[in-house]
Amino acid sequence: MSTAPEPIPLPVTAVTCLEDRAHVERTAELDLEAGVRRLRLGPVSALAVDRTLHAELTAPGTASVLDVRIVRRWRPRGPRATDDDSALRHRMTALEAELEALGRQRERLGTRLDVLGRLAADLLREIGEGAGFGESEGPRWHRELDRVDAERDAHGERLRAVEAESAALHAELDEIRRVMDLAGAEPPELIGHVELTVEAAAAGPATLRLSHLTPCALWRPAYRAVLDDGSLALETDAMVWQRTGEDWSDIRLTLSTARSALATEPPRLGEDRLVLQDRTSAERRTVEVEVREEDVADLGPAPVLGLPGVDDGGEVRVLSAPAPVSVPADGRAHRVPLSAFTTTAGTEYACAPELSPLVTEVVRFDNRSGHALLAGPVDLVRHSGFSGRGALEFTAPGAAVELAYGSRDDHRVVRQTEETRDTSAITQRTVVTRTVRLHVSRFSTPGEHGDQTVVVRERIPVSEVSAVQTRVREDACSPVPDGVDADGIARWNLVLPPGGRRTVTLVYEVSASAKVTGL
Question: Is the pLDDT of residue 290 over 80?
């Protein structure tokens, strides 16, 4: 078996980016020889997971892969600084280059001064010999001596200036080296190569496909919604980060929500003993209740601190980039377009005064993207430009989407509550009457026309036990709610003219029997 002196390039051709890692595919064209050969390919990322390495050989004849492995070695940092190096190392490299140039200049000046010294000695010897023979060329001798002395002085000054600058640069370079020694030396770079052992029955071309998992890569969905005159254009993008040590250039990118890290063994089951116990007479005479608040929301993953996970609705979703993309290994976020669609959208001005006194513009539309919309941030854009950032929940294909486009500055709601408690002497029932008044105002500019419908929602307690009952007093409500859903949310559709004001009064009773405690 023989090993090629130069590694065969093995570029990345396709990447499937998962929630916290990436599945990398590589392709190379090989020219096989008959027999068993060991080939060296790469370089590849040193972060590749060895146990996920898989190689497949496609050849017209009979060829097979006998062994494949990743060999890693440390390569010291080169003398030249790279883009990933610190500013201190870049300065040190620049100083070393300047000192090298000054050294060459000092050598040239020293050589020139040496030549001028020999020239002056020859000139003085010529003067001595001429004077001995009775020659008298005083003006020429003075002129030649003055020219040599002037050049020696000029080159001497330049040499002293170069030596002074070199000394200053040496001092700065020594300080930088001292600081870098204190901060730690630059670590060598870990690189990897693939050693592939193949057996071919006959010589010929073959295609190698190699795949493996690598960490330090992830993606998250992001959106851009443009609202303009009743139509909404939604662009679905993927924010991709990767620091695998090698750039992805012109690759086929696939985004998946699969979580390979969750493939673990189920927990062991333990005993859960249930014991029946008779209630005491005091417990039979009383019913303990408590008021609690619950969020009305769909099922989904529990929120976590930091970078949120991908909410896929409990089913693995796969999205593909429509065109080849390039993602450098700089650890920064890179936006990759996935899909876009335009649809009609309905607008509603909604308000929940118990939560906020602001009126929010809510846009409703259908998901026409052809795939599920995963939960993620949305850049909100109107025809006038960027207006803010919102959040999009998980939405199945074709399902309705609600997107909040911010609050309205020309609407305001004031909420007031009153509560009375009364106990009947005959039935011994406790009745709690609560009155909620909502004052809705619309502040319009001069010359504004047209009515505006504001949907106001107020919640009513919902009882889970028969001993406690809730009733809306429609005779005291003004106006009567347009509807009350199963979760106890009362709704009013208020029509406000420019500068108009409306007052909504909601009265409901919560009655409990004498056995109820904790109300």
Answer: no
What total of structural domains would you count in the chain?
Answer: 4
Residues 22 and 68 in one domain: yes
Say yes or no: 385 and 470 in one domain: no
Question: Which residue's structure tokens are 């002196």?
Answer: 5
Question: Does residue 175 sit in the same domain as residue 193?
Answer: no
How many helices (H) and strands (E) in the chain?
3, 27
Is the same domain home to 224 and 364? yes
CA gap 69, 114 in Å, rounded:
62
Task: Read off the pLDDT of residues 65-84 as tens digits, 9 standing for 90 and up.
Answer: 999 999 998 877 655 666 66
Residue 298 has pLDDT above 50, yes or no: no
- Do residues 223 and 237 lie in contact, with contact meaning Cβ atoms separated by under 8 Å? yes
Strands 483-484 vs 516-517: parallel, antiparallel or unpaired: unpaired
* d(C-alpha 477, C-alpha 469), whole Å: 18
- Final residue before a domain boundary, out of 380, 406, 432: 406
479: preceding bond cis by omega (within 30 degrees): yes
> DSSP label at 261?
G
> Does the pLDDT value for residue 41 go beyond 50?
yes
Return the sign of the alpha-carbon dihedral for residues 153, 159, 163, 165.
positive
Average of per-residue pLDDT across 430-434: 88
Full residue range of the structural domain in which residue 372 is found:
219-243+299-406
Task: Read off the pLDDT of residues 127-151 as tens digits, 9 standing for 90 and up.
Answer: 887 777 777 777 887 888 888 888 8
Helix (H, G, I), strand (E, B) or coil at 235: strand
Examine the domain organization and report whether 483 and 357 are in the same domain: no
Alpha helices in 401-489 (DSSP H): none
Average pLDDT score, the chain = 86
Short-list 309, 245, 331, CA closest to 20: 309
**Strand arrangement, sheet containing 35-44:** 35-44, 189-200, 63-75
User: What average pLDDT does the segment 47-69 reach?
Assistant: 89
Whole-angstrom distance, CA of residue 358 vs CA of residue 413: 7
Three-state secondary structure readout of 128-148: HHHHHCCCCCHHHHHHHHHHH
Domain for residue 284, yes or no?
Answer: no
Q: Is the pLDDT of residue 86 over 80?
A: no
pTM, to two decimals: 0.69
Residue 33 has pLDDT above 60, yes or no: yes
